[in-house]
Amino acid sequence: MQTNSKVKITVVGVGYVGLVTAICFAHKGYKVTCLDINEEKIKRLNDGECIIYEPELEEMLSENKERLTFTTDACLAFNDCDYIFICVGTPEKEDGSCDLSFVYNTADLIANYINKECVIVIKSTVPVCTNEKVEEYIKSHLVNDVKFYIASNPEFLSQGSALKDTLEASRIVIGSNDKIAIEKLKAIYDSFNLPYVITNLRTSELMKYACNSFLATKISFINEIANLCDILGADINDIRLGMGLDSRIGNKFLNPGIGYGGSCFSKDTKALVKFASEAGYELRIVSSTIDVNESQRYILIDKLKKDFSSLENLNIGILGVTYKPNTNDLRDAPSIDIIDKLLEERANIYAYDPVALNDLSKVFKDKIYYCPRIEDVLEHCDIIMVLTEWKQIVDIDRKLLKDKIVYDGRNCMR
Ligand code: UDX
């Protein structure tokens, strides 16, 4: 702790990855400054409010508050700092490619303000060669004549288990073309006592896309097999069991349903296909994964339409709207597209979610009914769609569902 407290780490971006990274380094005894352009978020964090819904994060933020500084002042953030973690968003552009404008805005600030030797670490998911380009960019814009190193250090945390995924990560990937950068980064990660994968910049960048795309592919694969089971009268759950017990396959990410959502899989699979194609390689499997996922969202609506000639004026209950449980995140949540489609068909929607109703109301305003309790949904609707496997929903007393028609979008109501 003595030495850690002398090291200054600056984390840029207080989104999921940035905030969790910052709090975990503070927990390890480092002094961490978080920089973000969003004044409201910084104010709320300074007031002690944890701005994302993540188990135990709020407690850990409060336990480590004396080691954490939140600011919008880049000069303060980069002054005298030893490590900079770039954790800004890399959203999807309309053509599916990755928008790097936040990364380059950060590079500009870094070039302006760093005033001592430091390691610049890109944690944001970025296309292959971005680290090298950012290094050149900072070099050519540097105001103070200081040495810096570039390293890639992708993040594999999942929302809902972000702290565990960071403090007990399955691996820490460090990519750099410079041995000193690797040693310096290992020096701050050694206290985590986790396995390392050490590689070069391009490999590290591509590894992140390969991991996310492989997991997405597992999901689309099992969804196609589940669709086939429906047609052939086979049991997908027995198939999952039989597949999962083969250790070469593994039992994770084989739960069928309405497909993946969230801030990563969709964006990263599309970006990978795009930059692979620009490099002259057509990634056919990942392209199919994307196609399957896009149609999978509507699988319950197809079933509903087979069962009812018209959806007009049907009261439909939606249980769960977040893209997965234990998060309030609605980014790329299948529920949004599903509700949109149901509204197009003129159904009446009654939605329940334990944490996301407020955010949902910003999307659908007065077009749907918001139910703070599951019972409120059941009172109005005989048709129920389960779109997120929240514990509250999975554990519903089955007697309450006795007369309901349940469309289970997460294969969780057995
Ligand atoms: C994912 C990756 O897991 C993580 O390593 C990466 O850093 C960021 O993206 P996250 O988006 O938090 O994490 O969620 P994850 O738990 O992976 O689930 C993604 C989506 O896939 C969810 O919508 C989930 O419901 C769906 N999913 C997951 C399935 O449909 N079936 C499964 O078997 C597993």
Shape type? globular
> What integer value in Å does the Rg equal?
23 Å
Q: Treating each run of at least 4 consecutive H or I residues as one helix, how many helices?
A: 17
Provide the β-strand percentage band: 5-15%
Bound molecules: uridine-5'-diphosphate-xylopyranose
Please trace the helix and strand order, writing H or E for each element: EHEHHEHEHEHEHEHEHHHHHEHEHEHEHE
- Which structural class should the secondary elements be placed in? alpha/beta
Averaged pLDDT, please? Answer: 96
What spatial order of strands do you see in the largest sheet?
A: 3-2-1-4-5-6
List keywords for this structure.
13 strands; alpha/beta; 5-stranded parallel beta sheet; 414 residues; 6-stranded parallel beta sheet
SSE topology:
Layout (H helix, E strand, L loop, with lengths): L7 E5 L3 H12 L3 E5 L3 H8 L10 H7 L4 E4 L2 H5 L4 E4 L14 H13 L4 E5 L7 H12 L6 E5 L9 H6 L4 E4 L3 H11 L6 E4 L1 H32 L3 H9 L20 H14 L5 H13 L2 H9 L7 E5 L14 H11 L3 E5 L4 H8 L4 E2 L3 H7 L2 E4 L4 H4 L10 E4 L6
Parallel strand pairs: 1-2, 1-4, 2-3, 4-5, 5-6, 7-8, 9-10, 9-12, 10-11, 12-13
Describe the structure.
The protein is α/β, with parallel strands linked by helices. It contains 17 helices and 13 strands. Strand 9, helix 14 and strand 10 form a beta-alpha-beta unit. The longest helix is centred in the middle third of the chain and has 32 residues. The protein starts with 7 loop residues before the first strand and ends in a 6-residue tail after the last strand. The mean pLDDT is 96. Bound molecules: uridine-5'-diphosphate-xylopyranose (UDX).
